[in-house]
Every structure is written in C-alpha cells, then in structure tokens.
UniProtKB/TrEMBL annotation:
Protein name: ATP-binding protein
GO terms of molecular function: ATP binding
UniProt domain Helicase HerA central: residue ranges: 83-300
Gene3D superfamilies (UniProt xref): P-loop containing nucleotide triphosphate hydrolases (3.40.50.300)
Keywords, ordered alphabetically: ATP-binding, Nucleotide-binding
Source species taxonomy: Bacteria, Pseudomonadati, Pseudomonadota, Alphaproteobacteria, Sphingomonadales
Record carries keyword ATP-binding: yes
C-alpha cells in the first residue's frame, strides 16, 4: 500500500464526515481520481506520480466538487520554499517531523512515501526535540501510546529514520551516546556576522577593525586567537584608538571561552551524504549563535551545491562523464522557530544568508522549510519565494495577517464551521484544532483544509512530565 489507485487500498477512513464546509468551490487542484488522491506542490498531472510524500487527509466539504477524505500528498522533486505557521501546540513542529519522515530513508518501507528517492536534510532544531526521529513511538510514553493508537486508526505502521546524525555544540551534554560535537570555523564567519554578534555597526570604527581583520587573515584557516592577536597588535592599527580595539578583544575573548570556534570545525560538505538527515540540536546556544550556525550552513550549502549543479549541467550539455564530487542533487534545510534565527527587527547573521538562499537556491537544488509561531516577527524578504504554506491555529491578529500575506494562493472567502458561517479567514484560522491546517500552493485555486497524518517516528514535542 502506498499511493493508491484503488479506494479499497487507501489509508484508514479517518475522515468520512466533517463539520467544515467551504463556500468557495475548488476550481483547480491536482487531483488523481483513481484512489482519490490530491497532490500539493506539483502542477503537472500524472496517473502514477513518483517522489510524493503523504501528509494527511482533506478535511472539508466544498461547494461544487468536494474532495473530503481524499489522501493529501506533497511533491518533493521541485525545490520548494515551505512556510509553516501556528501557535505552540497547534502542530507546526509536528509538520516538520512529517516532512522529514517523508523525504528520509526509513528503517522499513512505508506507505507515507511513494517512490521517494531519499533526500539529504539539515534541521535547525532550536528546542532540541527532534532526536526522537531516530526511534519508533514507545508505548510506555503516554503521548507515544496515543500516537500509536492514531497510527493504527490511520492504518500506518510505526517507523524510524535509518540514517540520522545528531549534532550538538561543544558545551551541550550528550545523552544518546553517539552525538557529534560540532564547532564553527572562524573563516566562514563574515565581518557582517561578527558585527551582528558583537553588537557593532558595520561601518563604525569597530566594524572597520573587524572587516580589516577578516580581510587580512583570509584566505587562511585562522582561529579566534589569530583574530585577537591581530587586533591586539597596535602596529596594525595606526590612528585607531586602543579603546576601540580593546572592546573587541574583550568580546572575542568571551566567545573564545565558549569553545564554539575552531579552525578544524564543521565542514558542511561532511553533511552532504546522500539521504542522511542531519539534526543540529541548538537549545543550549544563545539565539545569536543559533542564527550564526544557520547562516554558515545556508551560505556554504548555496556555494557548494551551486558549484556542484553548475558542473553537472556543463557535463550534461557537452555529453561528458561527470567527474565531480559524489554529492546529493537535492538538499532540504528545515528551521524550527524561524523567528529566533531570522528575526525581522533584531541583529541576525542568518537573515541575509537566507534571503540569498531562497532567491537563488532553486538552481542549486535547495529547498527551505520555515516553521514559526510568530509570523509577524520573521524577516519578510525570506518569505518572498514561498510556494507552499501550512497555516495552523494562530491567535494574534498581527501574526494572522503576516501569515495570510504569504499564502501562495487565494484564501477562503467563506466557510461554515459547525453551522456558523464565517467570512473572515483569520477567524477560520483561530478556530482550528491541533493538527488541522489550511494548505496552500501555486497549483491550487485556493487553500484547502487538511488533517495532518500522525507521525510514524516518535514525536518529541509533547509537554514535559
């Protein structure tokens, strides 16, 4: 059982009735009538599509043709920019797990994947909760026991990721036994990054010192001690006040104590093993440092994968054998709590890196998934290329407005919910239950209400005991 062309082979009949009736007809949607399947994120119709992942069931009745109970799938061939919004507990982080399960190699063959070639992924786990992707749900854990019951109801078996690496910063205590401690190479930190981290203006006196230091030490693989020594050497700075240099030395010395930087630190190429899920558990880092980790990974991905695809295209064009590195052709970067690493109104090393990533990453085979509980706090430029959106429950009007502004299709004009007619899409979002979301994409004429499927791996985002 996987992508089914027969109704009898479909997933569990968990949605046969619904209190939701959309008043707007669905004029256009990628629907495969045999088996009653709907595909989001792909405009081209195919009878037997490959590289689609299962995300849930359509949860709405609709004026005109209704797709209630249809199996909802998502394309993973095209480089996507996916935006997931929702309050705490609404299911937004859950969606990240569902997507990673779909694109990763699993321990056992699963119907949640249909002819999916495993995709390399990198997850920025700001709350350090996604390590459970490695494991099946455990009946001894109350929340997992409920998850197992849901899986049974949906006719899906528990599973676990087969190839999953867990990375932790140097000062985080390991608890699984095989976590990989990572550090950052200072040469990959730009002068703008340092100014953001140290609270300095790029074009101010100390910003000038930082820029000159980075430029003078490049392209060597230098250390933080090298930076401190260069700034401390008065002969390098005729006419520059000693107080300006000393302030930077004090701040860089504080960073030295964290152990986060090392010339032999993380090489992003080491993450690019085909089909491997790489999880960076960053809860113990300051928000600025979480942003820096994200910035370095995003920039290096863009450079490495951009060059890789350029070489592939040249070899293909001239019909020559490809002699480059054995890298994946597609990579997904997923970020939980995106407002933490790329805030709209606070210094952030990741902001410019992600803007570049979304604007030019398509040709490099790069997808981006952003999840946030505060849509109004995320830099809007990063969201300019969103082509798929998952809108879970939100409560504050500023967040609802920000989320709606980035829905890549038409929102609902009217919906009956348990007998009450609503004409404000924001009110519809406010009334959603956990796991319910409005899913929008370029290939559909409007957003569609979907019930997200249960996770096949253990969900680690439940409340503490």
């Amino acid at each position: 059982m996987s992508f089914s062309l027969k109704l009898a082979d479909a997933f569990g009949k968990v949605v046969e009735r619904s209190p939701f009736t959309a008043l707007d007809p669905i004029v256009k949607i990628n629907h495969v009538p045999k088996g009653n399947n709907v595909i989001f994120g792909r405009a081209k119709y195919e009878d037997r599509p490959s590289d689609v992942v299962y995300i849930g069931k359509v949860l709405e009745n609709a004026a005109g043709k209704s797709y209630l109970g249809a199996d909802a799938w998502m394309d993973v061939t095209f480089p996507h920019v996916i935006y997931i919004t929702g309050t705490r507990g609404s299911g937004k982080s859950f969606d990240l797990g569902v997507l990673i399960e779909g694109i990763s190699e699993l321990q056992e063959k699963s119907p949640v994947q249909n002819d999916v070639t495993p995709i390399t992924s990198i997850l920025i786990d700001t709350q350090s909760q996604f390590w459970t992707l490695r494991y099946e749900p455990r009946g001894a854990v109350k929340e997992n026991a409920q998850q197992l019951e849901e899986l049974k109801r949906w006719n899906i078996k528990p599973n676990a990721l087969k190839n999953c690496r867990i990375y932790i910063p140097p000062n985080t205590e390991p608890f699984l036994g095989d976590e990989i401690k990572f550090r950052l190479q200072p040469r990959y930190v730009t002068a703008e990054d340092w100014c953001s981290l140290l609270g300095q203006e790029v074009y101010g006196p100390q910003g000038h010192i930082v820029s000159e230091t980075c430029e003078s030490l490049s392209p060597a693989n230098y250390s933080l001690n090298d930076m401190i020594a260069y700034i401390s050497d008065a002969s390098n700075w005729p006419g520059i006040a000693e107080s300006s240099r000393n302030a930077l030395v004090y701040k860089l010395t504080d960073y030295l104590r964290t152990g986060l930087f090392d010339p032999a630190g993380l090489d992003v190429r080491s993450l690019l093993t085909p089909g491997v899920a790489n999880i960076f558990m960053l809860r113990d880092l300051r928000n600025e440092d979480k942003s820096l980790v994200t910035a370095i990974i995003a920039r290096q991905l863009f450079l490495i994968m951009g060059q890789h695809h350029k070489e592939l295209k040249v070899a293909h064009f001239f019909d020559k054998p490809f002699k480059g590195e054995n890298l994946p052709t597609r990579v997904w970067l997923l970020i939980d709590e995106a407002h933490v690493v790329a805030p709209a109104n606070l210094p952030s090393p990741a902001r410019e890196a992600l803007v570049e990533y979304v604007k030019r990453g398509r040709d490099a085979g790069l997808s981006l998934v952003l999840a946030t509980q505060q849509p109004s706090a995320v830099d809007d430029r990063i969201l300019s290329q969103v082509n798929i959106s998952f809108n879970h429950r939100l409560t504050f009007q500023s967040d609802i407005s920000a989320a709606i502004n980035r829905v890549p299709t038409k929102t609902l004009a009217g919906m009956k919910m348990s007998g009450t007619t609503l004409t404000d899409f924001g009110d519809m979002i406010r009334l959603l239950e956990a796991g319910q979301c409005f899913l929008g994409d370029h290939a559909s004429s409007r957003t569609v209400l979907v019930q997200i499927r249960p996770r096949v791996t253990s969900h680690g985002g439940y409340n503490p005991v």
